[in-house]
Every structure is written in structure tokens, then in C-alpha cells.
Design a protein that fits this description.
Elements (H helix, E strand, L loop, with lengths): L4 E4 L5 H7 L3 H7 L6 H13 L4 E7 L2 E11 L3 E8 L8 H12 L5 E6 L3 H9 L3 E5 L3 E6 L2
Parallel strand pairs: 4-5
Antiparallel strand pairs: 1-2, 2-3, 3-4, 5-7, 6-7
Amino acid sequence: MTKIILRPVLETDLKILFEQQLEREAVAMSAYPSKDSGEFMRHWDGILKNKDITSRTIMYKDKIAGHIICWKEGKFEQRVGYWIGKQFWGRGIAASALMEFLQQVKIRPLYAQVANHNPASKRVLEKNGFTVLDEGTKITVYKLNA
């Protein structure tokens, strides 16, 4: 397993996290649009102030590799999502980060959405016990029960 460290997201991390979400290939793989600087900072300001959201910076070899987050969407659903900077892809960082995060966040069930054209992210979820709940034409929804 890849050695990573999860720590709370700091305001000083946001510059790097902002740059990571601008990476064209990452945006294409995630099917999640990037945000401009103002929108990104407002979004993260809300995240950091919300005690019901758990967010962590993923550290790999003393560098910010990305982030992982758990939030409530809708009435009942708890969601998990992660973003890894392109330069850190293919190293097992996302799988390791999710494994450690699931030990910290005990809420179940958890849901995650993945673009169907992103097999690497699907594998990350499956390695960590998520199963397919609904496979749509563009997005697959995964669920973790236990």
C-alpha cells in the first residue's frame, strides 16, 4: 500500500488544490467542471466552515497530492469524493487515501459517483469495498454498506 498522510485541509493548501482542479485531463476524467479562482475559494470557504463536512489533504512524500472529502447530499445520502493531481496518478495514492479515510469516517452507507470513462477511479472504489448501485450512461453510482 502506498504511504500517504491525511491531514485537515489548510487554507494554505488551496492554491495547490485550485491548480490541480484546473488540469484538463483530470477534469475530463472526472466529468466534474473546474471552477475559476473566486468560485473555487468560495466553495472551499464553505467546506472549511461546515462542521458536517470532513475534508482532508492527501500528502505523499511531503507534497500535496490531492484531497478527499465526505459530505451530506440530499436528505440522507453521505457522499465521498477525491481529487488527485495528475502528476500523482498511477501510484496507488487514491486507493490508499480512501482506505485510510474510511477508517476515520465511520458513516455508512457512503455513496460515490464515477464517470464511466474513468476505470482507475472505479478500481479505487472497488478495492475499498464499494459496489455498483446504479450504472447510468455517463455516471456509475457506488455504495459502501459496511
